[in-house]
Design a protein that fits this description.
By secondary structure, this protein is α+β, with helices and mostly antiparallel strands. It has 4 helices and 7 strands, in the order H-E-H-E-E-E-H-E-E-H-E. It is globular.
């Protein structure tokens, strides 16, 4: 899959693989942004792990799935959310309160909206998972 947005492609690949019950999915090209989003998915318990594989080009991630993702995707256009505004975006992208995770890019790096809220930082909502 090629396109202008590696994160969107990665989210689609993971979402589709989960949908058909695959246990692993290769996501390419690898980028720091995609790696950071996968890190949040891992920290929140949505995937079993992921590993960077050097393919001589941009590289790729081997993602270990565990069937915990109902849906995930990237957010376009990217919305800016203050530390106290995440609830508005939770309502828009997640099916229920405290169910699922928004992935936010902040001045402290990419993290879940739970961490961002705790740290009192806002940022841009770039992805979601539940």
């Amino acid at each position: 899959m090629t396109g202008a947005d590696p994160l969107s492609n990665a989210m689609s690949a993971v979402d589709n693989a989960e949908g058909v019950g695959k246990l692993t999915q290769t996501v390419s090209p690898a980028s720091n942004e995609v790696g950071s989003v996968l890190e949040v998915f891992y920290d929140r318990g949505y995937i079993d792990g992921f590993e960077f594989v050097d393919d001589g080009k941009a590289g790729q991630f081997e993602v270990e799935l565990k069937g915990a993702i109902n849906e995930c995707g990237s957010v376009k256009p990217r919305y800016t959310a203050g530390a106290d505004e995440f609830e508005k975006w939770e309502k828009r992208f997640l099916p229920a309160r405290d169910y699922g995770t928004l992935v936010v890019t902040t001045s402290h790096g990419i993290m879940s909206h739970y961490e961002a809220r705790e740290a009192g930082v806002g940022g841009q909502v770039i992805a979601y998972v539940y």
